Amino acid sequence: MKNFVIIILILSFLKVTGQERIFVSPDGDDLNVGSKKSPVASVQQALKRLKTTEKEGNKSPFEIILLDGVYYIPETILFDETFAGLQRPLVIRADREGKATLSAGHKLNVQWKDKGSNRYEATVPDEINDIPYLYADNATIRLARYPNYVADIYPFGGYAADALSKERIRTWSAPEGGYIHALHRARWGGMHFKILGKEDDGTLRWEGGWQNNRPSEMHTNFRFVEGIKEELDATGEWFFDKSSRVLSFIAKPGEDPNKMTFVVPQFESIFSFNGKVEQPIRDVNIKGLTLKHTLPTFMKSREPLMRSDWTIYRQAAIFMEGVENIAIQDCYFSDLGGNAVFVSGYAKDIVASDNLVENIGASAFAVVGRSEALFNPVYSYNEAPKYEEISRAKGPKTEAYPRDITISGNLVRYIGTIEKQSAGVQIQVASRVNVLHNTIYQVPRAGINIGDGAFGGHDLAFNDVFETVLETSDHGAFNSWGRDRFWHPNRGIMDQLVKKDSALILLDAYQNTKIRNNRFQCDHGWDIDLDDGSSNYSIYNNLCLSGGIKLREGFHRSVRNNVLVNNTFHPHVWFYDSRDTFQNNIVMSAYGAIQIPEFGDQVDYNVFTSKQDLLDAQETHRTDLHSITARISFNRPEKLDFAVKMNSQLKGYFQNFSMMNFGVTKGSLKKQAAVPVVKALIFETATAKETLVDWNGFLVKTMSTLGEQSATGTADIKGILVVNSTKGKYKGIQDNDVILYYGEEDVSNLEQLLRAEVKYRWMESRKIKIWRNQRLMEIRVH
Predict the structure, then answer these.
(1) Cα gap 126→106, rounded to integer Å
(2) Rounded to whole angstroms, how far apart are CA atoms 33 and 35?
(3) How far apart, in whole angstroms, are the C-alpha atoms of residue 124 and residue 295?
(4) Pairing of strands 119-123, 246-250
(5) What is the DSSP letter of 619?
(6) 484: which of 109, 128, 208, 453 fits an S-S bond (Cβ 3.0–4.6 Å)?
(7) Mean pLDDT along residues 271-275
(8) At residue 759, what are phi and psi to the nearest 5 degrees?
(9) Cβ contacts of residue 619 below 8 Å, gap of 6+?
(10) What DSSP assignment string belongs to 97-162?
(11) What pLDDT score does 690 carry?
(12) HEC states along 33-53?
């Protein structure tokens, strides 16, 4: 009764004063009035005040302001159907940007005991049922694993073929509850398994592997195990023994865990918006907050997407469905077990801008509709609807998909730390998603991924995407599929279908998607990779720094006025009458065509930097009859300014576009953002025989002197001399080796080496022949 009276007095005060804001503090009290001097303790309490004090017809914003500090939330902040009728915009913001942290974890209060050799143990209180993940001093620490984690080793920070050997398993007393992490056999993504126990024959029982929608056995080499007591042997590792309730941790020398803050995640989501199409939750702005410490969700990622390589789990630090006009601005997402932001099902007019997302387990931004929005949805790669059952209705079937979404100005890096089926931005079953001015790097797979053609209309512009496909294979910095209702896994049947009824192609991908004015770099695949069936794209004014542009089978793609540095155009297994065009582009090596019966509507009016490459296009492919060869000079390539110094020869063939407008624009994010590393230009290396060039970490040069020939014992002055191998990324290459063959190509100079690398870069492993100790040796690099 006393508390009820206090609440009535508070509400009366708010009504009299006309207060439109409530302050929250970790040191507040939910019985306080809600002023800055008398704040409440939780966002949940502030939301209760909002609903209670709402005035009929009041349209002014209501603010919930979080004062500095860390808030260990007691439960997910839920916006359910009761919030659908609110009449005023709601702002939930930090009093000072970045200074208010919402943690989905529980602060661990334990007393650590020193067990010697930097090993500490603590007894965990009964209120903590399990410790699936652990954060310490604002960083993720490693669950005991084999092999031990080593930064910059890809994939996984270390892997071992013997991770599941009987010899190793024999040393484990109780491995159940641990995990196996592995790549797909073809390295298309990650797979995760929970260990259930040991068999009598010394092998393990496990469940999982459903995280990839193109099933396979786990990779024989790229795998590791974690969560096994006997593997606790490295600095920074921990293990929780449920039976004894003892938490063990190996600290750094001189580090005292009693002076550290340990957090155990409790929830998968911090904010969850759950509205409906008929009753959406509207007009909420989340601004300036730090969001941390969500649970890992990798074992729950099992919902298949439409014939995509992916499965997903619909959850994130901020999850929303059945929403309109929601903004997420100036927030900091870090130390999350899963996704940062997930826009699911029906959603309209959503903005995520100027956020920093780093060190998270899965994707930064996922925009994924529901399958009920599709006509003729199928999920397995090897399935297809029957021709006579394919609906001819264009576009979406229901409203259960996001539309008019803007993801802009975000800095995304070091994501997918657990789940390799992840991206900086993932789009599926959505319409008109604008991805603008984002900087995305250090990602295991694609920076931006579009999983199907439904429903197009996206605009990808002014993004800076690099250091991509670091842990997987056969992808691009931008990656897409178009396995829509027209698509069939049997090429012969698909040829017949589209020839019989070409209108099928644009039933799902009915709106054109633009990829324009971006800077892409992928050293382990293609810069822009339009894979299986991707259709109805306009690709123009992009600076591609390493991997070139690949178009696999699809229709209605226009590629024009792009700069393909050190690379080329990769048309793969096209259809007849694809309606594709490739024109007015600058290419720096021969086309990488594979099984092309005909080259669409037009492949012409391009600029080649090599006369031989142009002749190859004209004679081999019957393309580029009006294309030219030109000596290209870039303005300041060492500063990433690849503007072309124009002359009369280039007029009408190419038009410059801005090279200084990529990536984030917010000042504080711009200062933190890295930029791509400039590679040696192919056409400059042929004459620069004395110049040392960084090639995959090796310092190399073209052999050019009798002294070099004498020192290495080669028969001729040709090949590429390895001057310094200290930072080289390929094992087996040493100082003073001379590279003579790359793949099947004879490489006499650096230009030929770089061209051969372009030709074979799509392969997971390549053979290199080197001269060492007076004999020719062959090694394989991955």
Answers:
(1) 13
(2) 6
(3) 18
(4) antiparallel
(5) I
(6) 453
(7) 98
(8) -65, -40
(9) none
(10) TT-EEEESEEEE----EE-STTEEEEEPPTT----S--EESSSB-EESEESPP-TT-TTTT---GG
(11) 61
(12) CCCCCCCECCHHHHHHHHHHH
The full DSSP string for 440-454 is EES-SS-SEEE---S
Radius of gyration of the chain (CA): 28
Select from 755, 590, 570, 563 the least CA-distant residue to 644.
563
Q: What is the pLDDT of residue 57?
A: 64
pLDDT digits (tens, 9 = 90+) for 431-474: 999 999 999 999 999 999 999 999 999 999 999 999 999 999 98
Residue 156, preceding peptide bond in cis (omega within 30° of 0) = no
Sheet holding 237-241, edge to edge: 113-114, 119-123, 246-250, 237-241, 142-143
SS3 of 226-240: the string is ECCHHHCCCCCEEEE
Closest CA to 298 of 153, 134, 132: 132
The CA-atom distances, in angstroms, between 398 and each of 2, 125, 332, 375, 507 are: 51, 49, 34, 9, 14
Q: Decide: 260 and 267 in contact? Cβ < 8 Å.
A: no
State both tokens at 662.
């990529």
Strands, DSSP E only, in 409-530? Answer: 411-413, 425-428, 430-436, 439-441, 448-450, 455-456, 459-461, 464-465, 476-480, 513-516, 519-520, 526-530
- Percent above pLDDT 90 for the chain: 78
Token pair, residue 301, equals 């990622």
Longest CA pairwise span in the chain (Å): 98
Q: Where are the beta strands (DSSP E) in 294-340?
A: 303-304, 311-312, 318-329, 332-336
DSSP code at position 618: I
Q: How far apart are CA 400 and CA 13, in angstroms?
A: 43
Residue 225: both structure tokens together: 């195990």
Q: Are 568 and 587 in contact (CB under 8 A)?
A: yes
Contact 66, 286 (CB under 8 A): no
Nearest to 589 by CA among 606, 605, 612: 612
Query: Cβ of 711: how many Cβ atoms within 10 Å?
Result: 12
The residue type of 68 is: D
pLDDT digits (tens, 9 = 90+) for 157-204: 999 999 999 999 999 999 999 999 999 998 999 999 999 999 989 899
Residue type, 7: I
**Tokens of residue 727, six digits:** 């930072």
> In the 8-state DSSP scheme, what is residue 475?
-
Listed in sequence order, the DSSP H helices in 287-403 are none
Cα 550 from Cα 148, distance rounded (Å)? 37
The answer to whether 379 touches 314, Cβ cutoff 8 Å, is no
